[in-house]
Design brief:
The complex is a heterodimer. By secondary structure, chain A is α/β, with parallel strands linked by helices. Chain A is about 30% helix and about 15% strand. Chain A has five helices and five strands; from the N terminus they run αβαβααββαβ. In chain A, the strands form two sheets. In chain A, strands 3-4-5 form a three-stranded mixed sheet, with helices on one face. In chain A, strand 1 (about 15-20), helix 2 and strand 2 form a beta-alpha-beta unit. The longest helix of chain A is centred in the middle third of the chain and has 12 residues, at about 65-75. Chain B is an alpha+beta fold. Chain B has one domain. The longest helix of chain B has 6 residues, at about 5-10. The chains are: A alpha/beta, B alpha+beta. At the A-B interface, strand 1, helix 2, strand 2, helix 3 and strand 3 of A face helix 1 and strand 3 of B.
Amino acid sequence: MRAHEPAFREAAARLAAIGLGDRQYARFFREETGIAFPLLVDEERKAYRAAGLRSANLLHLLRRDNARARARARAAGHRQHRLGQNPFQLGASFVFGPGNADLFAHVSETFGDNAAPAALLAALRGPATGRSSDAGIRR
Amino acid sequence: MAPTLAARLADVTLPDADGSKVRLGSLWEQGPAVLVFLRHYG
């Protein structure tokens, strides 16, 4: 996401991330990554619950796609410092528009299952007409 | 008609890393917004 910030700015989109844990770790994450967009803290999982995001379990660690995702992350220089209060919480990426429009959804099915930045940018640039309510929605 | 996911999230207010409160719906009120739910920070 960080590497694509200019593209998102060019698409006139705001970026924001929500994470579990506390503000201290959000600040640490911001300092370590240099991320400039808002990092929000959801210690009580209010937003996660409202979005219907679920948790994985230990068995997910045995999945091959997870091993590949971990290898990709390590190769990109990402290091995990702390597991957080719910290490099995899965994430998601959404694109929303004015009028509370759902433009795109990618709900992670396992660890490392993240929306490709290109897909998010495509949702931002997509046609305004002819879009069904499920277009681009992967749940 | 069921509320959109954006509508369900719009009134959720969360603090940012500096403690300032952000109402999620304000992020996409004027234009599109990408909202990423991370597993955790760090």
